[in-house]
Amino acid sequence: MRTSRISGFYNLPMDERLKIVKEFAGLTDEEVEVLREGKLPREVADHMIENVIGLYSLPFAIATNFLINGKDYLIPMVIEEPSVVAAASNAAKMARDSGGFEAEATDSIMISQIQVVKVPDLEEAIRRIMAEKDKLIAAANEMDPLLTRLGGGARDLEVRVVGTEAGPMLIVHLLVDTLDAMGANTVNTMAEGLAPTIERLTGGKVYLRILSNLADRRLARAKAKFSKEAIGGEEVVEGIMWAYRFAKHDPYRAATHNKGIMNGIIAVALATGQDTRALEAGAHSYAARSGKYTTLTNYWVDDNGDLWGSIELPLAVGTVGGVVRVHPIAKIALKILGVEKARELAMIMASVGLAQNFAALRALATEGIQAGHMKLHARNIAMSVGASPSEIDEVVERMIRERKINVERAKQILEEMRSGKKA
Fold first, then answer.
1. Which residue among the candidates 19, 259, 331, 411 is catalytic per the annotation?
2. Which of 31, 144, 275, 344 is catalytic?
3. pTM value?
4. Which residue, of 18, 139, 297, 411, has the greatest Cβ tally within 10 A?
5. Could you tell me if 190 and 143 are in contact, meaning their C-beta atoms sit under 8 angstroms apart?
6. CA 236/CA 366 separation, integer angstroms
7. What are the boundaries of the signal sequence (predicted)?
């Protein structure tokens, strides 16, 4: 039976892990070779951005144990930070004991903004726009007939007034269902196409015609139960709740709390070729939507004393177009996930974000965040000073035992080891 619950996955050699993922996802030999080498063709890179001179690689890892809406997933994650993949996998294992994650996502509605200034009569301008609303929506849909034929397209139009020190602005919001695309190009094109008509209707001057990355009509949610037995007892539950309350009510803590969430989400986003900057901007602005920056997750304890966690945030992701269409590893990552729809990808990413956040809170409430993190950090230090694969474990063990995890001590230990071998 196909399952993401793979005991001891982290202890296996890299090629053995890759073999398991190949069988799970039905990867071809060619796809396996692309993952093993981790290379983006130079000619593809040269056409993706400007002034390319080379390539930059990051580790491509797999988080295990995820059960989301009753379906098993292996989660591709690209990240340089130690302990993130292990923490997500461990949290997913704990949630799995209670049925895994329940997730949902709204339709893929993106917001296109048209900024109008120097409007002579705001009330009359709004009246005229709303009187022409249906025609404006129809005109927007004519700009992308394929999207409309597929069932997407412009859905609604709203008008806002934003006050500034130079006077009020009229802001027109066009709401567009971009289906399985992230949709930035589509909504920008529609905004630019409608701008002349908006100018005529309002008598004002249009400047910006662009999407908003606060995609608050495109939300993903996930929740999970973590039984008190699975996570270490009532005292651990209480500690997690106090850690959560700290973040909920203090923006300094909330910033790092939410950064931990994005550790998981952005790792999946990088693997699958998403716009990570748009996701970060949307998440953090959504966290401040009440006027105070707070947490993207919520936690509570049920009558049995078990811990529940939930997450809600905007996730404008795509499974077609953009980098997804051209980057060979992004295509493979989506194949490993087994997703074709953007909504399913958003649900997966929300679940990973919740798992990552729970793992961080549990670590903070128990042994502290550094225990697992520093072991992996020590490995990076050992490698940075030139330790060979056969020397790394001993260098790490000695640094951790002495509680001196730094470059200078790693160099000293390595010199001692090598001089002892020579003697």
1. 259
2. 275
3. 0.90
4. 297
5. yes
6. 7
7. none
Three-state DSSP state, 85:
helix
**Of all helices (H) and strands (E), which one includes residue 398?**
helix 389-402
- CA neighbor of 258 nearest in space, from 351, 348, 353: 353
Quick check: is 81 catalytic? yes
Of residues 228, 284, 373, 377, which has the active-site annotation?
A: 373
Residue pLDDT tens, the chain, 423 long: 789 999 999 889 999 999 999 999 999 999 999 999 988 889 999 989 999 999 999 999 999 999 999 999 999 999 999 899 999 999 999 999 999 999 999 999 999 999 999 999 999 999 999 999 999 999 999 999 999 999 999 999 999 999 999 999 999 999 999 999 999 999 999 999 999 999 999 999 999 999 999 999 999 999 999 999 999 999 999 999 999 999 999 999 999 999 999 999 999 999 999 999 999 999 999 999 999 999 999 999 999 999 999 999 999 999 998 888 899 999 999 999 999 999 999 999 999 999 999 999 999 988 765 555 677 788 889 999 999 988 998 999 999 889 889 999 999 999 999 887 654
Q: Is 46 a catalytic residue?
A: no
Q: Check if 275 is active-site.
A: yes
Euclidean distance between CA atoms 155 and 318, whole angstroms? 19
**Which residue in this structure is represented by tokens 């619950």?**
5
